[in-house]
Amino acid sequence: MSQNPPDLRPDLARARVTETPRDGQPTIGMVSLGCPKALVDSERILTRLRAEGYAISPDYGGADAVIVNTCGFLDSAKAESLDAIGEALNENGRVIVTGCLGAEPEYITGAHPKVLAVTGPHQYEQVLDAVHAAVPPAPDPFIDLMPTAGVKLTPRHYSYLKISEGCNHTCKFCIIPDMRGKLASRPHRAVMREAEKLVESGVRELLVISQDTSAYGTDWKDREDKFPILPLARDLGSLGAWVRLHYVYPYPHVRELVPMMAEGLIAPYLDIPFQHAHPDTLRRMARPAAAARTLDEIAAWRRDCPDITLRSTFIVGYPGETEEEFQTLLDWLDEAQLDRVGCFQYENVEGARSNALPDHVPPEVKQDRWDRFMARAQAISEARLAAKVGRRLPVIVDEVDEDAATCRTMADAPEIDGNLFIDEGFEGLAPGDVLTVEVDEASEYDLWGRPVGS
Fold this sequence. Notes:
- This is Ribosomal protein uS12 methylthiotransferase RimO.
- The chain has 3 domains: 27-134, 3-Layer(aba) Sandwich (Rossmann fold), CATH 3.40.50.12160; 158-386, tm_1862 like domain (pyruvate-formate lyase- activating enzyme, Alpha-Beta Horseshoe); 392-451, CATH 2.40.50.140.
- The chain contains 12 helices and 18 strands.
- The protein has helices at residues 36-51, 75-91, 105-111, 124-134, 176-180, 188-200, 229-237, 258-263, 279-285, 291-304, 323-336, 363-386, and strands spanning 27-32, 55-57, 65-70, 95-99, 117-118, 158-162, 164-165, 184-185, 205-209, 242-245, 269-271, 309-316, 340-345, 392-400, 405-409, 420-422, 434-442, 447-451.
- The chain has a 5-stranded parallel β-sheet with strand order 2-1-3-4-5, with helices on both faces.
- The two termini are 21 Å apart.
- Mean pLDDT is 89; it is low at 4-15.
């Protein structure tokens, strides 16, 4: 049982695979770095490999080769990716690199010339070609059966569901459109088929992800609905699983999602990347500079669904950010009273237009502002969680050990938000169970409770 630290990375997804290969079966390992969208890419690659007869190894030692799916969003993430590649080379020696950092192959081969191949983001066929060249397949159609839902890198009871790729925004600090292209939405029916298979296989929670979830389907020229995310959300809500929306830009039509949350069709949870609150900072970011109107939207969301949970991420120390602009952000945070907040100190990213902006903020000032921002966010989180003591809430069980059952409420996304712990009367619970809990204690980020009726 572990509590969430206040600086928990919101962009890190951890892969979990357990499988015992048959004798002589070619085996591939996977290291999946970066955001949940990259994790879905890893799952697709492994599903294709599994269908071709490869086994999946949970460690370097048991693999004939290792795929490292990299992140290239921040310089610190690039360094982490290079470290992971180096570790895989040291432990295994046969490494194939893919993912966002793969868009810069010379950057990777300059640091690690012994990698077998480098491919870019969502280049599934090129990854398979590289694997075939390094470790030829040897399928046995009588033994190698594919799970209905494919290979998943998350626990069995929840799954990420990627509904689109790419992004049409031009934020100056971001290079995702350069790496992953313009918005390209998956067909509604394809998304629903995947979701149905996941729920049929035992998934109790669908985590809907993309670069811009609320823009889903707006890239279709001939579409029946002006905003296709609305019918998709309603159809996903009909499957009986929790449906959680991530990376939702606050367009006006988002207000039409909120009644579905009040109805119980989808989880009352919005993950919205506000990034900042001062209009001048937002303009330098090339983002909509409408923080005051955003407060009106937040008030409307809470009016229509009082139990809604709002999560967001912010950047402090953006080039040109003055103390006055930062104070505006703190004041806005006080008024917005967001439930879950993450924060990054600004970093230059190779290829980002923000690198050329004047008046970069010194590192010590960025650190000071990050500390002050997180202290303010922690105080808000503590107060909002304290208000839940005495309430009865549905929870989903993620893990059970000898100390407690680690659960989440509908206000908590896995690995990035808090937990609810049951440390009495948790005997007999198992991951994936959904039950009602009465909250009896709260901290800055987590809750404790007991099952109703125990």
